[in-house]
Records
---
Amino acid sequence: MNGKTLGFETAAKDLFVGPYNCAQAVLGAFAGHFGLDRSTAFRIATPFGGGIGHSGRMCGAVSGALMVIGLDRGVSVYAPEEKEACYALTRTFLGRFTAQHGSVDCPALLGVDISDPEVLEGARQQDLFQTVCTTFVGNAARMAAEVLGLES
């Protein structure tokens, strides 16, 4: 583990065990670094939590990390080389996360499909999100910082 990125990892975990979803926690941990108001970051990331609105798609922690990569290396004008460089960092991040956790999709990561409301409620009752997802949140934040070469 890179000690320089531990601050982002810890901040994301702390936000996640508070009232924020996985995507909000990861993006929120980096908000100050980018001069982004944390409240704005939380609003932007809200729909991405729980595998994109509990739809069983990409993990919100991964989505939050990709937003961080976009904030750091995304483009706002036609710049094909810079855009491709951002895509390459995205693939690097996705590869690292998948190598460590086996997937980037919520059902595979959690072992249950939270797009089913009954399964979602069962996951909440079992405290699955706090016991399992906190690791994904911390690792996503750390890995995003590592691929970007950011220091907390």
---
Amino acid sequence: MITFSTIDSRIASFMQRWGVRLLRWSLAVIFIWFGVLKPFGLSAAEPLVLKTVDWLPVLSPRQWLIVIGWWEVAIGITFLFRSTLRLAIALLALQMVGTFMPLVMLPEITFQSGRYPYAPTMEGQYIIKNLLIISAALVVGGTVRRRGAS
């Protein structure tokens, strides 16, 4: 007879074996997919990114969009391989600084009118959800020194 404890143990073992690996692959898919949309003008985030980088020197906003898109692709690719996880985390940390900038620089876009800072718009929610991505990256990054970790 299979007991609840046996089932629970098997489920927990499955999650322990596959959880971090699937988290790493999920991060890779998200960054590659969303990143590759930017250089090809297919990203729903394009208007927000263009307004956010409008003040940056050296490149035009559209050129910055392309750089950011390929940067995100690089983040995704580096999450695919255990040997490049440290690089993935470093690239992600730098990218996240820019990702949160619209919350401060463009509150008229990222928060509902008259409801700053407690009622984000869809764009604001899109940015704030990156807290989950940061947390996921911390979990994955916490495995880089473990032998045989996913």
